[in-house]
Write a structure and sequence with these properties.
The protein has 364 residues and is mainly α. The protein contains 14 helices and six strands. Strands 1-2 form a two-stranded antiparallel sheet. It has a two-stranded antiparallel sheet with strand order 3-4. A two-stranded antiparallel ribbon has the order 5-6.
C-alpha cells in the first residue's frame, strides 16, 4: 500500500509530529494570555455553545508551530536530504504555502480583534486565493469518474476553468472550516484527521511524495498540541486566525505536488457538505449565505440530545471512516463515495429539519 521509502521516512514523520505538537502545546497558553489582555473574547450568545467567555486566536499558535517547524525541517532536508524533493515542487510553492499561511493568520488576527463584516472576510479570502494561484497553486486536472484506464481517468482543465476551480477550492475550503468551527475541538480535530490522511496518501505509489507527507504531519502535530487546550471544555478557541490558516493550508497541501483534491473532498466531506447545505438553505430563505444561525450539523446533533463531547466524537468518527475510504479508494471511486456521502447527508439533514430541529434565529 505504501512506497518502499515510507519506512525510511517514518522517523522524520514522528519528528515532525512531535516537534510541532510540542511548540503548539507550549505556545497556546501564551497566546491565550495575549488574547485576554487585548479582549479577543467569544462571549456567550444565542448561536454560541460556550456558557462562559472564552478567548480566541489560538490559531496563531498552530500557525507559528507549523511555519517554524516546517522551515526548520526544510532547512534540515536541504542539508542532509532525508527525503527527496518532488521535481514539481519549487521554492515558490513553499513560499505560497508558508508565507501565504502567515498572511491568512494575520488577516484572521485582524478579524479576531475587530470583528470584520462577512464581506470583508470574503475579500480577504479571495486575496489569499489570488496569492496562492500567483505562486503556482492551480488544479490543472481532476479525476474522471466516467473514464476507464490510466489516460481516460484524468480530465485536464482549460486554464480559465482551472483558475476558477482553484479559487473556488481555496475559498470554499476556508469557509467549510469556518462553518464547522462551532464546537470545542471540532475544526482542529477534523483538520488533524485530514492532515494525517493527506500525509499517508502522499506515501502511496499513486502519490509518492514523502516531503509533502512530512509537511502534512507538521500540520497534524501543530493541531494535536493545540487540541489539548481546545477540546471540550475549551480554554481557548481557534478564532478566525485558526480558521483562515487551517482552511488555506489544507487547500494548498491538497494541491501541492500532485493534486489530491479528491482525497481532501472525501476526508473533509462533513465540513464541505455542511457548508454547501447551509449556503443553499440560507439562499432559499433569501438571506445572506454568511448570516449566522444554528442550522449547522453539529447544532442539530446537539438539538436531538447528544452532548457536546458526543457530538464532536461522532463527527470525528465519521471523518475517520471517510479518511479510511479515501486511502482505500482510487480517484474516480473517491468522487463516487463523496457523491454518496453528499446525498446521504442531505437526507439526514432533511429528516432532522422535519423533526423540528431547524435553525434558530441568528444572534442580534
Amino acid at each position: 500500500m505504501f512506497v518502499d521509502a515510507a519506512g525510511a521516512t517514518l522517523p522524520y514523520l514522528v519528528l515532525a509530529l512531535v516537534a510541532a505538537a510540542t511548540v503548539s502545546f507550549l505556545l497556546t497558553p501564551l497566546i491565550r494570555r495575549i488574547a485576554i489582555r487585548y479582549d479577543a473574547i467569544d462571549h456567550p450568545g444565542l448561536r454560541r455553545v460556550n456558557e462562559i467567555p472564552v478567548p480566541r486566536g489560538g490559531g496563531v499558535a498552530v500557525a507559528i508551530a507549523f511555519i517554524t517547524v516546517a522551515v526548520a525541517l526544510l532547512a534540515l532536508n536541504s542539508a542532509i536530504s532525508f527525503v527527496p524533493v518532488p521535481t514539481n515542487v519549487e521554492l515558490i510553492d513553499l513560499i505560497g504555502l508558508l508565507f501565504g499561511g502567515a498572511l491568512a493568520t494575520a488577516f484572521g488576527v485582524i478579524d479576531d480583534s475587530l470583528d470584520l463584516r462577512a464581506r470583508w472576510q470574503f475579500v480577504g479570502q479571495l486575496g489569499l486565493a489570488v496569492f496562492a494561484i500567483a505562486t503556482g497553486y492551480v488544479v490543472t486536472f481532476v479525476a474522471n469518474p466516467l473514464g476507464s484506464g490510466a489516460r481516460e481517468s484524468i480530465v485536464h482543465l482549460p486554464t480559465a476553468v482551472a483558475i476558477g476551480f482553484s479559487v473556488l477550492w481555496i475559498v470554499g475550503m476556508i469557509n467549510s472550516i469556518n462553518f464547522i468551527d462551532g464546537l470545542d475541538g471540532l475544526s482542529s480535530g477534523i483538520g488533524l484527521i485530514a492532515a494525517v490522511t493527506l500525509g499517508l496518501i502522499s506515501l502511496t505509489p499513486q502519490v509518492p511524495q514523502p516531503l509533502i507527507a512530512v509537511l502534512c504531519f507538521v500540520l497534524a502535530g501543530s493541531l494535536l498540541g493545540f487540541l489539548r487546550w481546545n477540546f471540550h471544555p475549551a480554554t481557548i478557541f481557534a478564532g478566525t486566525s485558526g480558521v483562515m490558516f487551517l482552511g488555506y493550508t489544507l487547500a494548498l497541501l491538497s494541491i501541492l505536488g500532485t493534486a489530491k483534491v479528491a482525497v481532501a473532498m472525501l476526508v473533509l466531506g462533513v465540513p464541505i457538505i455542511d457548508a454547501f447545505w447551509i449556503i443553499v438553505r440560507r439562499l432559499v430563505a433569501r438571506r445572506s449565505p454568511f448570516s449566522p444561525d444554528r442550522g449547522h450539523l453539529h447544532h442539530r446533533l446537539l438539538d436531538v440530545g447528544l452532548t457536546h463531547r458526543q457530538t464532536v466524537l461522532l463527527i470525528y468518527g465519521i471523518c475517520i471512516v471517510l479518511a479510511v475510504l479515501a486511502l482505500l479508494l482510487s480517484g474516480a471511486t473517491q468522487i463516487y463515495a463523496f457523491i454518496g456521502v453528499f446525498v446521504a447527508s442531505g437526507f439526514v439533514l432533511l429528516i432532522l429539519a422535519h423533526q423540528g430541529f431547524g435553525p434558530e434565529e441568528p444572534e442580534a
